[in-house]
Amino acid sequence: MVCFVRLLKTGILALFAGLFSGAVLAGEVTVAVASNFLPAMQEIGAQFRQESGHTLRIVNGSTGTLFAQISKGAPYDVFLSADTARVTMLAKAGKLLEGEGKPYALGSLVLYARDKGVLADGIQASLLRDDLRHFAMADPETAPYGLAASQVLETLELDVLVMQKAVIGANIGQTFGFVKTGNAELGFVALSQAMAVGGEWLDIPPDTYAPIVQGAGLLIHAKGNDAAREFYDYLSGDAARAVLVKSGYGVSE
Fold this sequence. Notes:
This protein is α/β, with parallel strands linked by helices. 44% of the residues lie in helices and 21% in strands. It has helices at 2-25, 38-52, 63-71, 85-92, 123-127, 144-155, 161-165, 172-180, 191-197, 226-234, 238-246; strands at 28-34, 55-61, 78-80, 102-107, 109-113, 135-138, 166-169, 186-190, 200-203, 212-218. Helix 2 packs antiparallel against helix 11. The model is unreliable at 1-24 (pLDDT under 50).
């Protein structure tokens, strides 16, 4: 009887030790995500949660807005920017745990239409249609995809159209929303967004805008957070890269 009681106590202690150990191992990661990357991030995040048991909290917005928040001390662990410039700036300001971050995806810009028959034969012809009321683009000051759109317009000598017909989104997510809701017939959006919902789009020649290299940074708020480090490393793994390719992004070799 004494032996049985001892075994029972030992088993209970082992059970609580296992539960406690699992609670310690499960962590939480707050990820600041550029709007264009949100759909892919949601899929990658679901995979990461299932494989690791960690919790992810996703905050999305324009790259410029998230950068400003991080610069002012926002408690984010990982920053997934739509460019590398702002990650580098955070590194120089001492906001990263190490290095200057890393590229995690290469984005592509397209001219998108929700409805059939809106796009003409080519980018210029589509934007110069007499019956085109509005086209959408993201703010070049805060959104790298908006900057790319302004570069395309300048290269094609169509930048005068910005004042005449452009509807400016605070980020690429809002820009896509303008086209999706019909407030603009066309929009410069990320290929990943167009692929996620369907519709029609024209690929934009890559030599008309600077490469959209998207950078990731492990932020100082993540110090001592093993789950954040695990997620940061996970971005470079095969599972995440498979989602990137499926979602319309390029990946480094």
